[in-house]
Design goal:
The complex is a heterodimer of chains A (about 450) and B (about 270). Chain A contains 17 helices and 10 strands. By secondary structure, chain A is α/β, with parallel strands linked by helices. In chain A, the strands form 2 sheets. Chain A has a 6-stranded parallel β-sheet. In chain A, strands 2-3-1-4 form a 4-stranded antiparallel β-sheet, sandwiched between helices. In chain A, helix 9 links the parallel strand 5 and strand 6. Chain A starts with a strand and ends with a helix. In chain B, about 45% of the residues are buried. Helices cover about 80% and strands about 0% of the residues of chain B. The longest helix of chain B is centred in the middle third of the chain and has 34 residues. Classes of the chains: A alpha/beta (about 450), B mainly alpha (about 270). At the A-B interface, helix 8 and helix 13 of A face helix 6, helix 7, helix 8 and helix 10 of B.
Chain lengths: ~450, ~270
């Protein structure tokens, strides 16, 4: 069995092509079903976001299946293979596991350390699980990926500091005021930037908004959209002492607000601080305003400087997550290797049980006078001998599976105990059971595993 | 040191290690364990006081060991309260760290009552309450000063536009300023009652000569200095960084009053033994 991750993302594919691979949520079950039918895929999960479309699969032969996945993508998204083949990347086995861990923790995201991707991967997995597209391997792998991402978020500061200019401004305001609730905001200028800023402020909880502009009509239009009050630039002085936040983005060539105006306003405000953001170029607010006590002025370069500093901090935190990923990969690898040894152990136990049953039957035929109690004692003692004999080989084969040459060791073990036939029988039974289960939609096992994952990922 | 004190000391040190771990590298589990251990330390310290009150039928705030122990307990109490209600983890760590330092210092003091103290205890009166309120006031002034320091740090960072992880973990500037003022106000009220009780007891017991003591004068200076600080704050004539600096200057007087003045005092020497 192999794990493969095939897909395209914002690093490898331009947006014009990426948008052709958008997956509608409601059609995801159908896609999973088609993928499982058309390819020799044992388990599958489709992660589709605005920045990536990836298919994770458990397959028998990864080369063949990668071609199948490409064909599936071409058919489903109606894009010729030649058009996207060069943008496609493929990771196999532990590389695929590492890729999933990096994606889930936000290390592979456009905005380093963003947390939205965790929810998206979780949803993709739960959808696949609900529709019977996952099995033992992905139930474990995705559970580990989600747990790892949550740990990364709680144990590092990867998602703590703002990495966009608008978010940095909101964060700064919160450091000064705590919250924007009942805070009064003055927007100077009524252009596109002002409109955008206004939406941000309203979303952050600022309820009293003034809009000041050179032409009153434009100010009125913008103010009306947020139940604000429109002012001309000349009227601005009247409200300066009343507002807590000033955001300026006019197209003026000179300063729109001078230090003296704020100084005058601060006399009336006394202890209440004032936060000013100048996002205009050339600047609207006199830089000397920042010299005033209890006044905090930030221009676009200051905000970008904070963002750059925060990005550097995120890079540092990302290194800690890289180490967590390494640890988690080792854990998964051990589990994966143990998984391969399970059928061998089961075959050995089955063979021993069969031999034990046959021998006892033969013994009881030869000693027909034994009563029920004697039979039970003999059964119990002989079973104990079998179990004791098997105990050490089973313990050792588990350890051997985790060694570097585990595969060879397991082959030798299979050969020594002549387990080829019982293994084949078990595999046959498994395929029959899978075929039977495929007829039904989500099985009870899937739902119990789903509940388990939900319990783990509950915030 | 008895077994309980040793146990509290180790628990306290362990709690600080976990807290430090979270402070250096955000770690929720370390914070939970650190806070849990600190709560246990608080319970054990409180049990010590209750047991002593039960046994002696009085507040155990006589020797230096007891007063500093009480000081440390008050700091831990407020550290936990601030964390419980405001999730102010940075203040939890700084106050518990300071509390640990004071707790260690308390262990170097003697716990037995000497001859001078024996005379005081024999005279009875309300002075254990006077000491407890004074120590409480000093602890509250300490917390207020820590808030003032945090305010100055945060103000400086925001003005100079230098972002940091610590800045992100601190509460808002306005909240810190309010807290600094409120703690100073409660501390001042506590000190007022302590001074009234102390002076009142001296007058009632007829030991008027005791009023002519350097410690009495310095305590009154602290009382007046905090009064001026609070008055300037309430009149809004001083605010922001200036008020925070005022706070730190007045707190320097508290330190002087608690350390040097006790040595030169005629009847407060015992608390420095």
């Amino acid at each position: 069995m192999h794990i493969v991750a095939v897909g395209l993302n914002y690093k490898t594919t331009p947006v014009e092509l990426r948008e052709c691979f958008a997956m509608e949520e409601e059609r995801l079950p159908e896609a999973l079903k088609m993928m499982k039918q058309s390819c020799s895929i044992l388990e599958g999960v489709v992660v589709a976001t605005c920045n990536r479309t990836e298919i994770y699969a458990v397959v028998d032969q990864h080369q063949v299946c990668t071609n199948d996945i490409q064909s599936f993508m071409a058919d489903w998204f109606r894009v010729p293979v030649d058009k996207f083949k060069e943008h496609l990347y493929m990771h196999t086995d532990m590389n695929a596991v590492e890729h999933l861990f990096r994606v889930t923790t936000g290390l592979d995201s456009m905005v380093l350390g963003e947390t939205q991707i965790l929810g998206q991967v979780k949803d993709a997995f739960l959808t696949a699980q609900q529709h019977g597209a996952t099995g033992t391997m992905f139930n474990e792998l995705f559970k580990e990926a989600v747990t790892l991402a949550k740990r990364a978020q709680s144990e590092t500061a990867i998602s703590e500091n703002a990495v966009s200019v608008s978010y940095a401004a909101v964060e700064l305001g919160k450091r000064i005021f705590g919250s924007f609730e009942n805070k009064k905001t003055l927007i100077v200028g009524a252009g596109k930037m002002s409109e955008l800023t206004l939406k941000h402020m309203q979303a952050s909880g600022s309820s009293y908004i003034y809009v000041a502009n050179r032409t009153l009509e434009r100010a009125q239009t913008l103010a009306a959209s947020v139940n604000g009050i429109a002012l001309t630039l000349e009227q601005m002085d009247q409200v300066l002492s009343d507002v807590d936040i000033v955001i300026s983005s006019t197209g003026s060539n000179g300063y729109v607000v001078m230090k003296e105006q704020i100084q005058e306003a601060m006399k009336k405000r006394r202890t209440r601080p004032m936060f000013l953001i100048d996002i205009a170029v050339p600047r609207d607010l006199d830089p000397h305003i920042n010299e005033l006590d209890n006044v905090f002025l930030y221009d676009i370069d200051d905000l970008q400087g904070i963002v750059a500093g925060n990005l550097a901090l995120r890079q540092q935190e990302a290194q800690k997550i890289e180490r967590m990923i390494e640890e988690e990969m080792t854990t998964f690898e051990h589990w994966y290797q143990t998984l391969e040894v399970v059928p061998i152990i089961r075959a050995l136990q089955q063979k021993a049980t069969d031999i034990h049953a046959e021998t006892l039957e033969s013994l009881f035929n030869k000693l027909p006078d034994l009563d029920e109690r004697e039979r039970k004692i003999i059964h119990k003692l002989t079973k104990s001998i079998v179990n004791q004999l098997l105990h050490d080989p089973i313990a050792h084969v588990k350890d051997m599976a985790q060694e570097r040459r585990g595969k060879e060791a397991m082959d030798l073990f299979t050969s020594m105990f002549a387990l080829e036939e019982p293994l084949a029988t078990l595999e046959h039974d498994k395929i029959k059971a899978q075929d039977a289960a495929a007829g039904q939609s989500a099985g009870s096992n899937a739902s119990s595993a789903l509940n388990r994952l939900r319990a783990i990922t509950r915030i | 040191m008895n077994l309980l004190t040793n146990f509290v000391l180790y628990l306290y040190a362990l709690s600080l290690l976990f807290s430090l771990s979270d402070l250096l590298q955000r770690n929720q589990n370390a914070r939970r364990i650190g806070t849990g251990l600190l709560s246990l330390v608080w319970i054990l310290q409180a049990s010590f006081f209750i047991a002593r009150i039960w046994m002696d039928n009085d507040l155990p705030v006589i020797t230096r060991y007891e007063t500093t122990f009480f000081f440390s307990w008050v700091l831990v109490t407020f550290a936990l309260v601030l964390y419980m209600f405001f999730r102010a983890e940075v203040f939890l760590y700084s106050l518990s760290g300071l509390g640990f330092g004071i707790f260690l210092f308390s262990l170097s003091g003697q716990s037995a009552i000497n001859a001078d103290l024996a005379a005081f205890t024999a005279s009875g009166g309300i002075w254990p309450l006077h000491i407890a309120l004074s120590i409480g006031a000093y602890a509250l002034f300490t917390i207020s000063a820590i808030f003032a320091l945090a305010y100055l740090y945060m103000h400086n960072r925001l003005k100079s536009k230098r972002w940091s992880t610590l800045l992100h973990r601190l509460p808002s500037l306005q909240w810190i300023e309010q807290m600094s003022y409120r703690f100073a106000l409660i501390g001042w009220a506590s000190l007022s009652i302590a001074l009234l009780l102390g002076c009142g007891w001296i007058i009632v017991s007829g030991h008027l000569a005791m009023l002519n003591d350097l410690k009495v004068y310095s305590s009154l200076v602290v009382f007046v200095a905090y009064g001026v600080y609070l008055w300037r704050g309430v009149r809004l004539s001083t605010f922001g960084t200036r008020l925070a600096l005022w706070n730190l200057i007045v707190f320097a007087l508290v330190i002087l009053n608690y350390s040097a003045m006790n040595i030169f005092s005629g009847f407060h020497k015992w608390s420095w033994m």
